[in-house]
Amino acid sequence: MDINSAEFLISNTTFKKCPQNEKAEFAFIGRSNVGKSSLINMITGKKKLAKTSSTPGKTQLINHFIVNDEWYLVDLPGYGYAKASKKSRKVWEHFISEYLLHREFLLTTFVLIDSRLEPQAIDLEFMNWCGSKGIPFSIIFTKTDKLSSSALQKKLSFYKKEMLKYWEELPPVFISSSQSKLGRESILNYLQEILNSFSESRS
Length: 203
Known about the structure:
203 residues, Rossmann fold, 7 strands
């Protein structure tokens, strides 16, 4: 897939105000400071599309971007930001869950995982929740350039072993680096496959 255009469209705090046409969309979510904005910018080839920050918890809205005038890329607030007030976290959790449960043309959600860390309870809980609600998701391991090849493989093996305690089979898994652009082609090819299936189902 070639990305010819990618532009910010709208921000909202409720799925009811999100774009109401029938374009396919893909959401990106993960723990705060997992490198979500950098990954979105790397995938689209637009360095300043999603706002990056050294301060976790910067994204606090449902942000829609229109890509190639054909589909939406959706940047969701990061979960697990400890410094946010309990009230703020409750608001985010509510509109994130409402969005994931009610967006008819959300085709898959990419859950971003920091490849350097041990499996985090909050990530596993979120993915198990998606599974219980029938929400399709894929996993992208980020910041893989921070690890040696052998260390990365050990981390991935351990993570997959942990997930198989809860799942009979794993969802699609990608490894990425916003610095080296590792994973960009694989993720774009996967997006194209899903879009092709979506178009065929509607024709």
